[in-house]
Design a protein that fits this description.
Elements: H1 5-38, E1 64-66, E2 70-72, E3 75-77, E4 80-82, H2 111-117, H3 137-144, H4 147-158
Antiparallel strand pairs: 1-4, 2-3
Amino acid sequence: MILNDAQLDAQLLFDFKGIIDEVTYKILLKLRESIEREVYDAGTPSPNDGYRRLKYMGGLIGSFEKLDTNILGRTVEGSIKQDPMTMVNDPDNFTHGSNFWNVTDDIRTMLSDIIIGGKSGDLFGPGFWRSPRDFWTPIIEMLTNGEVDKLIENAMTIRGIIWRKF
């Protein structure tokens, strides 16, 4: 039973924290699906070149994480962050770096841009790795096409919160 405005605010913030937590997690899952589809499913590296896909154990897909959902005053905030430094850097085997680059042997902070833009160099000749593999646009579209709004609405409905868009 809610007896006053303060208790109502506290309950709503608690409910909205759960909603944002759920929706943020679903966005992370969609991001991971997009990375699988656009990046990993685009082709398979040759086992002879020394490169091995690490995925969740030091690879691109594992570098994205959902942060804790926070309540800041009357605002609830959910975030997904990439930490490129969680990716393995093994330039000897061309894993997120190369000893042949004259700028740096560690490209982890640039890797997403390289993959999305198809900016990989020609060291290994032509191949899927040189084509744009844009895993990010499907997530932006999800945010702009109303899909996230539907996720929020469903999460609210499950919790018995009825809302109307004005």
